[in-house]
């Protein structure tokens, strides 16, 4: 049995095989398409079908997990583990982390022998996935939960996210850009470059013209931001909104420039994808600054 139980949520966009192989619990956030709720504890929609519907004009929405749902989940976990480490989706993008903290406090009050630690990763998609990966590595090296928590909290702001989207209108729906910006950007083939800042918010960094230039810009930012953390990048993660070919292009650029050879590529799940849209490409790594 694991020394402590690791739990994350579906916004980490980690492959199911990885979660299963490393005994990682996953709490699924819900999303709504055409009035029907998916995810949560219910049925999942095939991710390719999800993106096909978005390309056809469907506008999905999402909902956070409430404290009661977390309480039920944690109560199942503590039947087998008295130490639970939950690595949560950024509080700058969702109230899910706060719901988890409320539930954890209630359970520990009723069960003094239980220790549930909730860490706000300040991350999203496979940035959160990389956060989980580092926790897995530490647990496998025999580190205690306290040691793992300390390292993650000390290094949370070294988990860098840089990404670009193919369609600005999805960011407009989420209030990230104005309608005028979305329209002008679409006409002029302007592609924004964004990141997740120190507060866990989604923020625009710059813009390029043309898809290929936007992908290369992600790798340029990686070169700029890694600094002394280059040698600590034992895993590079890339997520995509049904754009595997572009994800592979970014991987090849990273390999060519920096010589990294350990990558994890996966699709962006519906919760994040509802806001970023088809064609999104995101690159995640450790760096000196976000």
Protein model, in words:
- The chain has helices spanning 16-21, 47-55, 67-77, 96-110, 125-140, 145-155, 168-173, 179-187, 211-226, 244-258, 270-276; strands spanning 5-9, 24-27, 30-33, 36-39, 61-63, 83-88, 115-120, 159-164, 190-196, 202-209, 236-240, 263-267, 281-286.
- The protein is an alpha/beta fold and 290 residues long.
- It has two domains: 5-156, Rossmann fold (3-Layer(aba) Sandwich), CATH 3.40.50; 158-286, 2-Layer Sandwich (Hypothetical Protein Tm841, Chain: A,domain 3), CATH 3.30.1180.
- The strands form three sheets. A six-stranded mixed sheet has the order 10-9-8-13-11-12, with helices on both faces. Strands 2-1-6-7 form a four-stranded parallel sheet, sandwiched between helices.
- The protein contains eleven helices and 13 strands.
- Helix 1 links the parallel strand 1 (5-9) and strand 2 (24-27).
- The protein is globular, with a radius of gyration of 19 Å.
- Helix 9 (211-226) packs across helix 10.
Show the helix and strand layout.
Elements: E1 5-9, H1 16-21, E2 24-27, E3 30-33, E4 36-39, H2 47-55, E5 61-63, H3 67-77, E6 83-88, H4 96-110, E7 115-120, H5 125-140, H6 145-155, E8 159-164, H7 168-173, H8 179-187, E9 190-196, E10 202-209, H9 211-226, E11 236-240, H10 244-258, E12 263-267, H11 270-276, E13 281-286
Parallel strand pairs: 1-2, 1-6, 6-7, 11-12
Antiparallel strand pairs: 3-4, 3-5, 8-9, 8-13, 9-10, 11-13
